[in-house]
Amino acid sequence: MDKAKLAVWKFASCDGCQLSLLDCEDELLQLADTVDIAYFKEASSREAEGPYDLSLVEGSITTAADRDRIREVRRQSRNLITIGACATAGGIQALRNFADVEEFTAVVYAEPQYIATLGTSTPISAHVSVDFELQGCPINKRQLLEVISAFLHRRPPQIPSHSVCIECKLRGNVCVWVAHGTPCMGPVTHAGCGAICPTYNRGCYGCYGPKENPNTGSLSHWWQRELGAEEATVVENLRNFNAGAPAFERESRRWTDRQSREGGHDKE
Amino acid sequence: MTKSKKSKTIKVDYLARVEGEGALYIRYDDSGVQDVQLKIFEPPRFFEAFLRGRDYMEAPDITARICGICPVAYQMSALHAMEDALGLTPTPELRALRRLIYCGEWIESHVLHIYMLHAPDFLGYDSAVDMARDHPRVVQEGLQIKKTGNAIVNLLGGREVHPINVRVGGFYRIPTLEELHKLGEELLTARGLAEQMVRWAASLPFPKFERSDGDKYEFVALTHPGEYPMNEGRITSTCGLDISAREYDRHFREEHVPHTNALHSLLRERGPYMVGPMARYNLNAEHLSATAKKVAREVGFPTFCNNPFQSIVVRSIEVLHAFDEAIEIINQYRAPQAPYMPSTAQAGTGYAATEAPRGLLYHRYSLDEDGKITDAKIVPPTSQNQKTIEDDLRIMLPKYLHLPEDKLQAQCEQAIRNYDPCISCATHFLKIHLDRNGRDNP
User: Fold this and answer.
1) How far is B293 from chain A (nearest CA, A)?
2) DSSP string spanning B87-114?
3) Do B65 and A12 touch (CB under 8 A)?
4) Which CATH class is domain B47-425?
5) Chain B hits for A27, Cβ within 8 Å
6) Which architecture, in CATH terms, is A4-153?
7) Tens of pLDDT along B256-275?
8) Model pTM?
């Protein structure tokens, strides 16, 4: 039987999620025996033609050319899995979605007219259908191996969608929120990292994006009213690596809209 | 445009085995190389723009996301710049732990480059996976060395990509003695493999490449009076530059070059320069660990390296040094009094440069009195090397123009990979507009 063909694609991103595959030091060679790594620019000069059985897509869509390219990738892929916060939620670069990208361009580049970019950074699912989304900034390499293995064996991936709080309990951590009053995104954040931030005595900053059905309104209320977090801190934590994830975006807009309304009252 | 001779082009639309998205375009004819363009089509992500308004404490977490391969470098430069702005000097104990995590990143990043991105060029393979079929032990040992580097970053940083444990003033949590000793044992085992790696790297077949007198490299790296540079030092060069990070903007400038539309970093006084392992080595070889010096001598490696194809050897020597340094830090370890030094927001501007695996990484931030960032400037190593990479190709190519095109192209790609260019890092690099002269465009 022919080996399944695996392809790895990159859009706007830091390369950290595809690097997670190369960081599988113990499994990489075995994986390469199991599948045909047909397209993986970071790791190989070889390019085998599609179609591909499984495509892993890292990065968000930020240019018109990439908007076209992802359609071609989809066309070539039997299964398409997005890996990481950029591909599933637009990444940190989705902060432009809340700002004026022309002003951004003028700040960074001496010749802004040379820059070709879209005004938004959007997840892959905004452009093509996606078979599975693996969240995280960066993704967890164990979860990546599980997802690859699941697709190769045509079974559903065992990726829990509960919150970081559950992982914290499983690790036996003392709750940094309850015990130390540290603002923590854990209750609304998707599991997968192993609750490392609370394990290292800091609050979760939400790099795995929203869990299934998060109550972001309650969380931000508690942050402000009970933990004394400033409004800016609440918004900053919703608007970082998963700023474009609908649950975080909605809640952050609710806060900024309220800020602008209250700002209006002050002037009266 | 010249019409006379038959003009040929080399086009590599998407460079493999580099980090990020780049392309190469070379136009040449019988009279020589007419045009060399290393083009970067990594889409812009605007870090410097969206950092404005963010809290100074967020800078290490956010700037880490510029690069998945060297996040620690971004965290270290950002921390030092913030501490410079706030007038905070971490204790020697905290400084040692920062050096330890940086050693981890040097090891994992260098070893990734050595085995997975660069070595296949020398031995004629498409990838490390292909290479493993004929050289299984070499690749397996490489992966094992890399894994140890990741173990350091994991312990000190919480995870290998985008660590969560470093903060302005120190760490969120410091490791326990037991954790450090266990790590120390792993390091001792892998150090033996790292020694073998230097010998193996030195035995690879290197293309001969010399720059003539008028074209000599200017090497730029940090220099520290007592140690091989990593987290701090003065910015120095082989042409006599000797400045603090605070003076960087006065001596270096970034140019939005018309033919590539990508920012090139240049020395105001002299133009292109090279950062990275070769620059560090050439300016600081005396500060390498005793073992690293000894093994370098045994394999007959010079203390000044001018052939960029040998950067793979310099990287392996630096990996061995990083092992020695990490083991030394663990052996000498004294626990800090507190995991971090508290800081309070205040207005100011901070400057810092550290040595990312690929070379000098400069950060500058201005803060308002609430500690919000009002201005950010980040100059990654790859944008500093970009002009020198193009010059290498221009100088090297005439010797190779007789080669069949596929060989010529492979030679060019290998020359680019000498630099381990990290294109995602180069926050300034951008989508290239089509050339309007009617030529082909990559």
Assistant:
1) 28
2) T----HHHHHHHHHHHHHHHHHHHHIII
3) no
4) mainly alpha
5) none
6) 3-Layer(aba) Sandwich (3.40)
7) 765 554 578 899 999 999 99
8) 0.94
